[in-house]
Amino acid sequence: IGGVFLFALARRMTSAGGALVALAYYLLLPFGAQASRSFQPDPGMVMWLIMAVYALYRWSEKLEWRWAILSGIFTGMAILTKPVAAYILAATSLVLVIYLLGFKAALKNAQAWSMAFLMILPSAIYYLGRSRGSIWDYITNWTLSLSHLLVNPAFYMRWLSFVQDLMGFIALLLALTGVLISQKRNKVILLGLWLGYALYGLSLPYQMYTHNYYHLQLIPILALSLTSIAQVLMEQVVQ
Fold first, then answer.
1. How far apart (Å, rounded) are the C-alpha atoms in residues 200 and 158?
2. Within 13 A of 193's CA, how many CA atoms are on the CB side?
3. How far is CA 65 from CA 20, 51, 58, 113, 169, in A?
C-alpha cells in the first residue's frame, strides 16, 4: 500500500521514470524487505507516513479542504501507530505550510489549524487514557539521559556508518544530490522530511546506531529524494 502511494507521489513530483526508480528502491532494498516482515508497528507507520506526505503534496497543489482533512487523518494515524512519526511529519507539514502561506497567514488559516488538530487528536485520545509516567520515563531514559552523546563526534560517525550500511552509500549520496536539484516545492518537502529525520535522530541518539528498524522511515525519504536525479539521468539517456 505504501508503494502505491509512493509511486503516485513521486510521479506527481517528477515523472513516471523517476517514480519507477523510487518504487524500485522502496520495494527491493534488502533492509526494507527484511524489516517489513517483522511483526512491529514500524512498517505500518511507514505506510501511513507515505500516505500523509502524498496528501500534503496534493493539498499544496490547490489548498483544497479534502486534502487538508486527509493529510491530518493520515498523519494522525501514523503518529498513533508509532509516535516517532511526529518528528518527520510535523517538520514537513510546518515547513510546507509556511512556504505556501507565510508565517502570519498560516496562523489565521483554518485548513492549517484543522490539519494540526486532526494530526494530534488520535494520539491525544489514546495517551490521555494511559499513565503519563510511562511516557515521561521513556523520554528520561532514552533522550535526556543519553543527550551527552550529541556532543561526541563519534556518535555522528556511527550514525552515518549505520545508515550507509542499511541504505547503501551510493544511494545516500545520489539522494542528497537529488534534493539539491529538485524543483522548489519538491525541495521544500524533501528538506522538511530530512529535517524531521535529523530531529528524530537527535532525540533518540542511542537507537540511531544500534536499532536498524528505527531507520525504516528513511527508506521512503531516500526513495523520493532519488526521483529528481533519476529523471535527469533518464532524460539524458533518451536524448
1. 16
2. 27
3. 29, 16, 11, 12, 40
pTM of the complete model beyond 0.70: yes
pLDDT in tens, 55-78: 999 999 999 999 999 999 999 999
Nine cell digits for residue 119? 494530526
Q: How far is CA 190 from CA 132, 182, 212, in A?
A: 34, 9, 22
Q: What is the DSSP string of 1-64?
A: -HHHHHHHHHHHHS-HHHHHHHHHHHHH-HHHHHHTTSSSSHHHHHHHHHHHHHHHHHHHHH--
pLDDT digits (tens, 9 = 90+) for 184-223: 999 999 999 999 999 999 999 999 999 999 999 999 999 9
Question: What phi and psi values does residue 217 have, to the nearest 5 degrees?
Answer: -70, -15
Task: Specify whether the CB–CB gap between 93 and 44 falls below 8 A.
Answer: no
d(CA 153, CA 176): 21
Tell me: pLDDT of 133 over 60: no
Polymer length in residues for the chain: 239
Residue 149 neighbours by CB under 8 Å, 6+ apart: 155, 205, 206
Q: Can you tell me the distance from the alpha carbon of 21 to that of 227, in angstroms, rounded to the nearest whole number?
A: 7
User: How far is the CA of 67 from the CAs of 60, 61, 115, 194, in angstroms?
Assistant: 9, 10, 9, 23
Burial environment of residue 125 by CB neighbours within 10 A (0 to 12, 13 to 18, 19 or more): exposed
